[in-house]
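Hi U.,

Before I forget, here's the chain from the pilot set. I'm dumping it here mostly so it's searchable later in email.
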Amino acid sequence: MAASFIKKGCSGEETVATRKVKTARAMNGPRGAFIMLGVIHRDESGPGLLDRWLGAVKPDVVTVEFSNYGMTFRKKWGPLYRQRIEEVCNRLKRDNAPCYDNAISMAFSYVEMPYEFESASRYGQEYDVPVILVDMDFFSYLRLREIEGLLSSENLEKLLSEGGGREAGYERVLARLFFENGVRTVAYTEEMRIRDRYMSSKIEAVSARYRGKRLLHICGWQHLQDPHDLYGPLNPIKVFIYDKTFRV
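Structure:
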């Protein structure tokens, strides 16, 4: 079955009326609905928005685009790397050197739990709802195995004093072009296809286990493109965390 947000092969602008219907379905649809909520990673406004979406959708089960390896790594090594980042930043400030906020946020993003996981975990604990991580460990391992070199004191001085990282505002522009005008602003890579095939398979198993329950999948907005229709069998309702038709 085709996804209910932008059907495979479809292009062009999605109407406000269509988005309102879709958002209403996400919040008021049958308990067995599968909802994909596209978010912007490392977005300062993300935690509050996600908390409100969770409260409005009231899912019975939550899956998150996050790996068990990534969670374990951050629990074990996060405090050590956070201390190193803070020490380098403090040293730069003592030397009257710049230390850019966006660069600090990017550095912390490697070692802190993503807000998607934190918000979902709070919701799960409060309402006794299962929260399941469905992303691949392999790609997390490939990225995180280089972190010691990436976050060495020497590299951190360059990163924090020269700035870097893409602002969440820029991501919002790209996402809105896609969701509101059907403009594909980012490439859908082979890695994304492999991960989406893996995650959709795991979510199908979760859906079968919790049959009849409302399932919410929290993922980066780029995954809602799904050009290979990997999530199609789940008949997803796709919504964007910044959907202007949704006010809470």
